[in-house]
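step 4 of 6: structure.
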Amino acid sequence: MPNKQLAMVIDSSRCIDCKACMAACITANAVPVGCNRNWVKDAEPDLAKGAFRGHFQPGGCMHCDNPTCVAACPTGATFKSPEDGAVVIDRGLCIGCGNCIPACPYGARFRNPAIRKADKCDYCAARREQGLSPACVDTCPTKARVFGDLSDPDSEAARLLAENKGRLVRLVAAATDTKPNMYYLGVTEPRNWPVEPAPPTAMAAMTGLVDPLVKTAVALSGLGVLAMLGRQLFTKPTPPHDGHGHAPGDQTPGSGDADRPDNRS
Amino acid sequence: MRRIKRHDRSDILIHWFNAACWLALLVTGVGLVANPQLNPAGDAYPGAVRSLFGGGPALLAVHIGLGIVWMAGIVLYVAVNFRGAVFFLKEIFSVSPARDVMWMVKKMALMTVGAKPLVKAGLTPDLPDQGYYNMGQKAFAQASVLGGVVIVATGVVMSLSDMVIPASMVWMVGWSVTLHYLAVGLVFAGLLVHVYMAAISRDERPGFVSMFTGHVPEDYARHHHKLWLDGLTGDSGGHK
Ligand code: HEM
């Protein structure tokens, strides 16, 4: 477990769909045109049930405790930070294989067309280094997004969680609980949009088929070498021509012991 | 005792250059895999190599640099000794199944369980004659050539992925990771046997020496590579 666990607590009933969080994120992180690190989803008002208001739901990377994107990364370029529990990407190590993108149930990752590598919310790492909070949190006019360290009981995020025990919602895919660190207070809609993580066939083949195949091949080969070594160490050298490609009658002059001085070296 | 020339100086150089590159690429490359579902050298290995090289990105850069040096060396060898390269490829891909399969079965038995089981199975322990390379050498050489092609192609795709690969072709990068791992793994499995046979096995000692001197004693050539020697001397007895 990380020393800290950064998280976002969201009161989506406060969201007015102004999308200032999205604009602030794009500016703060130089997100290329057409891409987003965060979002505001909306639920249509269900007039049949007498609900005359829709509902807006801000979101972004949920920095899960069980990150399926991290499991899909072959190089460890994306990992859960041991310092603060954020799921981050080491751009120097990411080779842009794309395995992590469909492995996220939330669609929080995208291939940044400018760097051709995976990109997503990092809770504004650069701003945090300067002691600022993430741009989306800072800019939200209704304070729908609250950010903080859950391991610090005095943080506003931890306090909100404690106060709202029993009415917290975490959005998860039907069959996979990624243990997201994004908590919604009370009712939030829509809820059933996270999809099952689907790492590409290439990664599934690597972990499920290629890796066991390679390890079995290396193990068998290693056993073969041990068997040969054992035979060499614990048996006497074979007589010179035992098993050395001589058809009967193929004996040539000078092919006695003397021509294989190496044979008992 | 007559000594027969087996390897050119450029053959010897490329062999040891290739072996050194393989070793360095293996040490750095295995350190670039960091995923608990894989970690072929244990969970602690990637972190250790990365800190040794000053971090993951530095290790990646070193690995790519070594890969370029390796490719350049092989291209240079082919340019310098084109005929040698063609001879090598021709030799390793000419397999005569009847002779070579029997050789492989018998040799594997002789090296591990000995001659008795062969005799019990109604076979003689005599090995069918072999050419410039025996079937074991051919099998490993085929694996390292075909594996090398896959390793280079997928390595190029991976290193170019953040430079030229468009979004619609990202699937190629994912598959390159998988195939790179597969090819290296299988060649490495063969390499264990190769290094044993070449450097440790007492029967093959003259072959080992030849990878430094370029020459083998005539009798060694006759016992191990009779068809090659016969071809050289044009004499089925192989002894002049
Ligand atoms: C310390 C490591 C190695 C040792 C001691 C070694 C030794 C040798 C020797 C002595 C030969 C000559 C056999 C003969 O002509 O009779 C040979 C051939 C060869 N080596 Fe290596 N080698 C090593 C590493 C490698 C590596 C890493 C590769 C490639 C992945 C490789 C590929 C080959 C190939 C393709 C041949 C020709 C076919 C054969 O003889 O099997 N070797 N090696």
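step 5 of 6: annotate
 - Residues B 6, 15, 18-19, 22, 133, 137, 140-141, 144, 187, 191, 194-195, 198-199, 207-208, 210-211 surround protoporphyrin IX containing FE (CB under 6 Å).
 - Chain B has a mean pLDDT of 94.
step 6 of 6: archive
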